[in-house]
Design brief:
The chain is built from 10 helices and 17 strands. The chain is α/β, with parallel strands linked by helices. Strands 1-2-4-3-5-8-6-7 form an 8-stranded mixed β-sheet, sandwiched between helices. α5 links the parallel β3 and β4.
Length: 450
């Protein structure tokens, strides 16, 4: 092994000199400030307010000012407008009527609350990053629209994290656009997220990444064991399709099953989250979601967007999808006393750090390819130039074929092609864009150029 990396170092040392890389691993003061301002106390207050609506079932009361999903969504919108006052944050309802279906017994208005923070760089403003939590709740009977359904963890925790991020981050500027969504009807079939994702697809919106926060409230498992040192991040590899697209077929042909858009996004989220939230692990799970289960990132995946899901380390099912009751001396139900508010704040900080890093960085390079016209042990990489005015150059990253994360990187300057003295047969490559402040895009996987 030592001999292998000695040869690698010697080969890289022989490369032509390029400009020094901006501080790509340094901390950005703006992101540090955002992370520090995330408040467990405010998150707890938001969750307890949401629980106070008694039920947020999708088909619950919409007229009352104190109970039901209507009161909840009006409060969420008003709260986002209040904390976003004097900032560019734009808050609106996104509404549609869902027809009768397996989990909708009558035509029902589904209302998302969407807060958009427009990007400030002309070359990046159309690029969007979306973060969500679902504010609807349920108890044991998914069709029970009147019984108590506090939903403190599932998913007031994710909703509160998204609202906290929006309120803190609205005071800062980002190159790309950020969208903070609290969505409805997740429990009835991901209806709110699916409507928004479909509208985005029809409008051809440039959603460069999406992640949802669903069940991020507890640091204890069903045995009471506490683990507040990590969060699970679910990341799909190959999409579920009846027929493979050309892009998926190319991934399979070149062994890039672990280099989908979502896996590249997950690597960027893990790197940023662990950099800005010390001693907290972003545990990337190489699945689209928990085994045969789902969440609001899935409608985005189904429409070709990179999308991820944050969830606590181990779910306690006594406090999820349960009527409130006491059995054998144990209080069952999704109640606020079972949440760990410091833990939720850590997960929100990871989200905020990742969103900030992505929205400050250039876009991932486009049309990244490997020249394959001749047989050789070197690897010739080419790509399309980025348009951002603050672009500093590009970074080539690579890893062993058995490694999950990038292991090596080389800044190559403001060029659109570069030859690496490494064989494309033996490692996986990616190309990242870097700006003058050291913000780094997710990597782009190279396809063959014949």
């Amino acid at each position: 092994m030592r001999h292998k990396y000695f040869l690698l170092a010697a080969a890289l040392a022989a490369l032509p000199a390029v400009a020094a890389e901006p501080g790509a691993t340094r901390r950005q003061p703006q992101i540090d400030q955002i992370v520090q301002q995330i408040s467990p106390a405010r998150i707890e207050a938001t969750i307890r307010k949401l629980v106070g609506f008694r039920t947020r079932h999708t088909m619950s009361d919409t007229v009352s000012e104190t109970e039901g999903i209507g009161a909840a969504r009006r409060w969420i919108k008003a709260e986002l407008e209040r904390c976003g006052a004097g900032t560019p944050l734009q808050v609106e309802f996104d509404s549609h009527i869902a027809p009768v279906s397996a989990r909708i017994s009558r035509p029902t208005e589904i209302v998302n609350v969407v807060a958009t923070l427009p990007g400030t760089q002309a070359a990046s403003a159309e690029r969007m990053y979306v973060v969500s939590g679902h504010y609807d709740s349920r108890n044991t009977d998914v069709m029970d629209a009147t019984g108590d359904a506090p939903g403190a963890n599932d998913d007031a925790s994710g909703t509160a994290a998204v609202m906290e991020m929006a309120c803190v981050m609205a005071k800062y500027k980002f190159d790309a656009t950020l969208v903070f969504m609290t969505v409805a009807a997740e429990e009835q079939g991901l209806l709110g997220a699916a409507h928004w994702a479909e509208q985005a697809k029809q409008k051809n919106l440039n959603i460069a990444g999406m992640f949802t926060n669903d069940i991020i409230g507890s640091s204890r498992d069903e045995h009471g064991k506490k683990d507040d040192t990590q969060v699970r991040l679910f990341a799909e590899g190959l999409p579920v399709q009846k027929e493979n697209s050309d892009a998926v077929r190319t991934l399979i042909q070149t062994g890039g099953e672990n280099d989908s858009l979502s896996r590249q996004l997950a690597r960027a989220v893990k790197e940023a989250g662990e950099r800005y939230v010390p001693k907290f692990k972003v545990n990337v799970i190489q699945r689209r979601d928990r085994y045969l289960r789902g969440g609001d990132h899935m409608p985005f995946l189904e429409r070709g967007y990179a999308a991820l899901r944050f969830t606590e380390p181990a779910e306690d099912f006594n406090h999820q999808h349960q009527n409130i009751r006491t059995e054998n001396g144990v209080l069952i139900g999704d109640l606020p006393q079972y949440n760990d508010y410091n833990y939720i704040a850590k997960v929100a900080r990871v989200n905020a750090a990742a969103l900030s890093s992505l929205a400050l960085a250039p876009a991932a390079p486009q049309k990244v390819q490997v020249r394959t016209a001749k047989l050789q042990n070197d690897t010739e990489l080419v790509w399309q130039a980025n348009s951002e005015p603050d672009l500093a150059g590009y970074r080539i990253v690579w890893r062993d074929t058995t490694a999950a994360d990038w292991q090596h990187a080389k800044f190559v300057g403001k060029v659109t092609e570069f030859t690496m003295p490494l064989s494309k047969d033996n490692v996986y490559f990616g190309v990242q864009a870097v700006d003058v402040d050291g913000n780094v895009s997710p990597a782009s996987y190279p396809t063959p150029l014949r």
